[in-house]
Write a structure and sequence with these properties.
heterodimer, A: mainly alpha, 3 helical TM bundles of succinate and fumarate reductases, about 0% strand, globular, B: alpha+beta, Ubiquitin-like (UB roll), Fumarate Reductase Iron-sulfur Protein, Chain B, domain 2, 9 helices, about 30% helix, binds protoporphyrin IX containing FE
């Protein structure tokens, strides 16, 4: 018998894939770049520069990031609209996680819009007006200047935590939606792994936010200082 | 696996003299609903059905208003037919196996709230029309076509593991608990766990397997399996302890291998 896919089916599958493959993968690269800020402005700016030097960058940005993000976020908001939330009557952990996936998604919708306009494009009047794109060597100072405002730091910490949850638990959702993980035992293990991933992404991400406020972020500076000095002995003063 | 984990058989040490039943009533489909409260003398080993029968004998509310007897469905009275399913103290379950002592121990009060399931057309009072679950079974071909004009001989052997697993799915009584508790389920939006588990039951059968494409096609329609949001309330509320998420994920795998990537082997 011929196989028939409905539109909704294909749109859902595409939504599930875009969450992991372009977006999840991109996020790992992104957080890695941000973590390099622990080792100071030069190291961070050089990593940003490296990204700017990737061949076909615009193509990758449009087809690997912007379009999948636009699709996943808009369709994600539509999916969230279908939810008939009932955590008060059925207060089970996975029902709460279902709700968190939608709350973090909704928050990310606004946060990512803000974040892109704020740093990628530099288009929010009253805030940073220099796009990081094309100004790699100013990347650190753009961010650290912005992070002198307390509320901006709070917004970014919330953004990092929401992403950590959404991507971490999204990893579990993906493996069950595609039939990789099946039994209850395997599900339990995967959820544990997903929550550990969320925790790690959250901790590393929050520390990266603070790395733009204070060298090495919240960690003892000695952890970063030595490695940084070894790699670039002539590093200029940091701030 | 026990089918009555939600029944605790707790005993009230100091039971109240009377128990109040707050019932959501509706005269007919489409009419507005309203609440009526009734008071029934407490008896040992009372369940929701026996209380409703008591109310039916003398349908007078606590305000002294004479009213019509509440309408509900019941049949087997031993939690195997599924027809007496309703929302009791906010949670969906069968009213025949909902013991009053259990309910009062859980809430600490002396009131029990009864509502019809919200995801089905409400025919009257606590009675709903669950026809659409049968429509869902048709959508996924939840049967095995075996019609011959001659003796087909004995069926194929089934390993005891598969037989065990199929037995668990075969216990579904189409009660509707999983659909009621599912935050993704509503009419035309999502077919829900019940039909997916029945498709799985027949896909696991060696003869039924030959019609797997038909079942998977049914599950890939607009309201199909991809609308599952993995909240897994179905697992928690199923009175037959059917591992519904497992049936969904097995089917997700069949769809990935058979339907999405099947062209790689054709
Ligand atoms: C920007 C707004 C976003 C919204 C509104 C959103 C919304 C959602 C929703 C509602 C789901 C659950 C889908 C379901 O249960 O069927 C989901 C799943 C997922 N999201 Fe997002 N999301 C957003 C951004 C992101 C980002 C930036 C990432 C990656 C870092 C991401 C990764 C994932 C993953 C991996 C899943 C699991 C896929 C699956 O269900 O199989 N999302 N998203």
């Amino acid at each position: 018998m011929a196989i028939k896919f409905s539109t909704t089916f294909l749109l859902r599958k595409l939504h599930q894939v875009t969450g992991i493959v372009p977006l999840g993968m991109f996020y790992f690269v992104h957080i890695y770049t941000n973590v390099t800020a622990m080792n100071g402005p030069k190291v961070f700016n050089d990593h940003v520069q490296d990204i700017h030097d990737i061949p076909f960058l615009l193509f990758i940005e449009v087809f690997g990031i912007f379009l999948p993000l636009a699709y996943h976020s808009i369709y994600g908001v539509l999916i969230s609209g279908e939810a008939k939330v009932n955590v008060l009557s059925y207060p089970y952990a996975r029902n709460w996680f279902y709700l968190f996936q939608r709350i973090t998604g909704g928050f990310l919708f606004f946060f990512l819009l803000f974040h892109l306009l704020n740093f990628r494009f530099g288009l929010i009047p009253g805030l940073n007006m220099t796009p990081v794109a094309g100004h790699a060597q100013e990347a650190f100072s753009i961010v650290s200047t912005e992070f002198q405002k307390g509320w901006i730091v709070v917004v970014y910490i919330l953004g990092v935590l929401a992403t950590a949850w959404h991507l971490g638990y999204g990893f579990f959702l993906f493996v069950v939606d595609w039939g990789f993980v099946i039994s209850e035992k395997a599900q339990k293990l995967t959820i544990k792994a997903a929550l550990v991933l969320a925790l790690l992404l959250g901790l590393v991400g929050v520390n990266a936010v603070f790395a733009f406020v204070r060298p090495c972020g919240l960690l003892p500076q000695s952890l970063c200082e030595s490695s940084h000095v070894k790699r670039t002995p002539t590093a200029p003063a940091r701030f | 696996m026990s089918t009555n984990e939600h029944i605790h058989k707790q005993k009230l040490t100091d039971p109240p003299k009377t128990v109040k039943f707050k019932i959501q009533r509706r005269e007919k489909e489409g009419a507005d609903s309203h609440w009526e409260t009734f008071e029934v003398a407490y008896r040992r080993n009372m369940n929701v059905i026996s209380a409703l029968m008591e109310i039916r004998k003398n349908p007078v509310t606590t305000d002294g208003k004479e009213t019509t007897p509440p309408v509900w469905d019941m049949s087997c009275l031993e939690q195997v037919c599924g027809i007496c399913t309703m929302v009791i103290n906010g949670r969906v379950r069968q009213s025949c196996s909902a013991l009053i002592d259990d309910l009062l121990v859980a809430t600490g009060g002396n009131t029990v709230t009864l509502q019809p399931m919200t995801k089905f057309p409400n025919v009257r009072d606590l009675k709903v029309d669950r026809t659409r679950m049968f429509e869902h079974l048709k959508q996924v071909n939840a049967w095995i076509d075996l019609d011959g004009s001659y003796d087909l001989g004995p069926g194929p052997h089934i390993s005891s593991e598969v037989a065990h697993e199929r037995y668990v799915y075969s216990r579904c009584m189409t009660c509707g608990c999983c659909l009621e508790a599912c935050p993704q389920y509503s009419e035309n939006q999502y077919i829900g766990p019940q039909a997916i588990a029945q498709a799985r039951l027949f896909n696991m059968h060696p003869v039924g397997k030959t019609e797997m494409d038909e079942r998977l096609n049914g599950l890939m329609e607009e309201n199909g399996i991809a609308n599952c949001g993995n909240a897994q309330n179905c697992l928690q509320v199923c009175p037959m302890s059917i591992p519904l998420p497992r049936a969904i994920y097995e089917t997700n795998r069949d769809i990935t291998v058979n339907s999405l990537f099947g062209w790689l082997k054709r």
